[in-house]
User: What shape does this take?
Amino acid sequence: MIKNKNGFLLGEETLKIIVAILCILLLIFLAYSLYSSFTTNRFIEQAQGTLEQIADGLAVVDKEGSYETTLAQPVGYSLNSNYMDSELKPYKQDICNTKTYCLCICAGNRGITISCGEKLTVCRAFDEKIRIDANNDKANGKNTIMFQICPTDIRIEKNSDEGGYIIKDMFEARGSKGECY
Assistant: This one.
């Protein structure tokens, strides 16, 4: 008898290839899940640190009148306040219900409100109003600071007109085009 050596795959060989492909896909999924978990945790830690830095700045303002610092968040994230509408609360952020006012950092938020939709959000509640005065064209006059390529310099002051505090984006300090210095 002559054996057929045309090279077609038998059922057993096909099954081995399918199992190998499924294993590779599973490894890719697990690697992506691990990476996503790492970056999410990193964002949460960074955002909590930034909000803590701002809260510490408010205490300094109470003693010294003003406070300047640099915030470094990933590009495209934003700092938002519910200063204009204290009833507006972010999605699934129960901490904002503990006090009247809230500051939130939203992941990938190109929007203009504190609601942030269903995007990853980290918030901190405050008793006093915190208005954000964003001096850049990205905010369109709204109550938000967009984190751009450069670290964001801010100044916190008492708001003598309305009470509470003002966080000012020191955009002009970076030059007319917002270059990093």
